[in-house]
């Protein structure tokens, strides 16, 4: 029994999801695709049924589960529609353009009483992050004290605003830090470097761990993500993201990928496979709607503080029982 | 349309093939499994149809393509049976226990006039080897002069004989060296280290490239494969096979895998997907029957020379037109 | 003409200075040594003249220049004594136990009008830091935005207090950050991790660069110093401090040194040679009295804020003309 | 008491020796220099006494020990002159242009009955090689089975002949392999790669260890030396020769040095200091005249076999008792 998946959005991420469903996943297939641009949809999903209307795709009997990769502002609406029909969703981050709308998704799912929504925080399926989390869980580096993150993009596109370094880039560190640590954030502070340059962000968790992050959307040299978890007995960090090294023209080197897709190509595939497998097993995987909501809350609070430079305290509503799970 | 695959053999490799077909491949599924031990077959292929007789599996209408992971001595026989029925085969190395039998497979396939056989030299699907081969093809390190290989196993099992370092381990370097270089080997010489220790093997290609290989089945510390391609302008080599590094107990370290399966886990998946995709497209992928035959010829010649210490000249019959392909 | 050097203090650092002067330096020799414990002095300086009284050593005609490696509280007093006699000094950090006393040294030297004092911030002579500073100076990574420091000790001795992580360890990052950046610090903030654990310290320079530092005196695994300078076009960071790698017992690893002396052994030698060469040439090298004073000011301000958790503003008196130099 | 050293030859290596003696060595100074070109001598040894005649320098009362860095063909003659006068010598490799002349030096020194000659095989003082040798001596990687060497130069100068890859480059691997292993070589075989390219050389020691070496004088990309010692339980190899890494222009990289002098700068200094210290202590250090002779014998035998491609057996005269030493 192969799961019939419909993909909403045929942009960069939607096309990548469609490709993964067509080429790399066991137990599922691309059944339908929707985009405002029919040609783009056809290119991304040859042979899949085309829908001009996302709601029609969600409601179609030909679609058993939905991937949402449309513009951010539509995420909550389409996710809610799928929840109403009881169809599983893999939704690209963010869960909603604003935290309040994200809370609406959480409440709808909590009211339903079973998890249908997986947020596309693909880093949770990256092998390096996985090894780091297991080191925390098995205690091999002692009690966790610090987490250092680095998030660098080669160059921000022209339409990138300052706040987007938080809402678009840093959200990945918010999610992965919570997941690596198994802790909730309680405070945060931003230190912007001069020259419109990178942000240094320091967060504190409920357990008193410190999370430092460089968010650098104009790093100049390539896409580069790094993390190091510091325990009371030792640390674990990502190895250099290289499969081969060249000795050439006076130097030894390896190339960074131009953007996040090659860096996390395997994580995207594993994420989709885990989503498909969880649906088949009647369980859930990956980041939940609650995780998506919390990330949006923190990012929103930081955006508000970006100019003020003050410490931000983070307050959350009670976590619904549906999302109570072991770290 | 999902390809129905039957797997012959439910040992370590057969079970891994069955798992990949059940969990990781798009466009195919595990339809049948055969093993002398029904319980082992059932464990490897839950839900798949069980065959006690490999020939019955090959002949079954429920099986459209066959993976052969049974003992080496049976490979040629089962492959020939599949060829007779026109069914595609993914056969674990070696193609046959002896080169003469391997030539029989080549001739049968050549007589048929289309490629049905893919040999399971999974390293061709490893990303690091792929980057090295592209460096040769695109000329980025100049004209190729040397290739250095290292092949280390933690410890050889008790039943491992000296010759098996050649027929079981070194065969991977024979195949991957031919593929990396796009050259045929013409001579080889073995230098055994004292203490029943590792072998140093030097081969020369038709183009005058030199291939040096350490084959070390009792390396002591773990499974470790390395290669460096040396060109006239630079070199390309494998990076350290680590996703994370630990700073702990006085040292920075990463762990080697205990054996080849974790090291080449992704290569195995990519190999099977490529096989399935090629069948769907009516093309072929990976190592051919001819590649499997040549590897067996070279290994056989080296075994004969293991004690003599002489230079071995390698002579091959003409390459059938079916296998004439671009490097 | 060999420079006759007297060393005050024969503890760990004094003995190391004495050894360097006896064994590794061109153009100087160990002429005299002083310590409260004559046996310890004799062990550190075989053949050197012994002084029980540091002031007698400083004043002796047999001593042309002085290395001060006695307890911190005596540094300013002995340095001032040497300045009065016009004798060059290499003084271990800190310049004084309190900033006010450090300012006294600065003023005495400034009144004299020529530099006699070099502070023992040996990291300025470390090759890796040197390469990083040159990358800033030659613009090869663009305009500098951030500096990340990590300073880890295996385990703090029992007598180590919380404030000493600042006054004893972090002072090295204060000095090297100023030197790497060619900037003065204007503000700082401390984030202590829970569990009496490491400190995360964020500083801001006059140019708006951000300096993040982990000071971790109980890192558990060894002595480890790391730094990365982030520019608008790229970054430069320290390579792993290893000369060899071992593949053993399932892992690839290299050992961290147990403390700072092996890590900076070459820097200590280069520092002393630079001091001797500068005296011969009538110039000066390394960190000045002013540098030593500024470092002490910043550390003192941070200690005062350690519990409060507030942002610390850093105010300095005008820099005397004697210390006006190119970055 | 500072040792008065005279340097013969003010070319690249002579000037470097003179500089080290002037700037980096404790207990010695550059007293005299000799070169056919007085201007070159003056530039290399400002303030040192100039000699036009090497024999006059050797005989001068102003010279207590001699560094020989003149053309290869003169090494034996000047070394013998120093031996006759009982003056210690640090002689650049080779000991003589031909093995027969090298044996003359060995016999003269053996007749004298004490070691006066140190050969300038500076790699023995390189920290990485030192760590590798200690790993062999302390048994930490088990019994030694193999040694892999790589010796790459960016580009051979125009006057470089094929045989010089052996007599000029490979001699360093001959010496360091003997020193690392504590074994004598008994056989060797050369595999030249096509295109006038690199040589692959396989040697066998008296204990049955195998030594593989790539000698590549036109590697294209820079100066690069690597070695890995393979034991029955693990291996030890050189780490990447980098102090810093740059992330720039799409890649992470570090630069190789253009030639051997920066790579072995510290080894040259340590070598000279060890020579000076050994003279003061009445002992000896580094490679002996016997080591220099053996290296020349092996290189000479290989040159004779370069075209023939045969296995070379290595026969040595009995080792004089003067050179009997622990491995």
Gyration radius of chain A (Cα, Å) is: 20 Å
Distance between the termini of chain A: 32 Å
CATH class of the largest domain in chain A: Alpha Beta
**In terms of quaternary structure, what is this?**
homotetramer
Task: Classify the helix fraction of chain A into a percent range.
Answer: 25-40%
The neighbouring-strand order within the major sheet of chain A is 12-11-7-10-9-8-15
Number of strands of chain A: 15
What structural category do the secondary elements of chain A indicate? alpha/beta
For this structure, the CATH topology of the largest domain in chain A is Dihydrodipicolinate Reductase, domain 2
Whole-number total of structural domains of chain A:
2
Q: Give the chain pair forming the largest contact, with residue counts.
A: A-B, 34 and 34 residues
Proportion of residues in β-strands of chain A = 25-35%
Point out poorly predicted stretches of chain A.
none
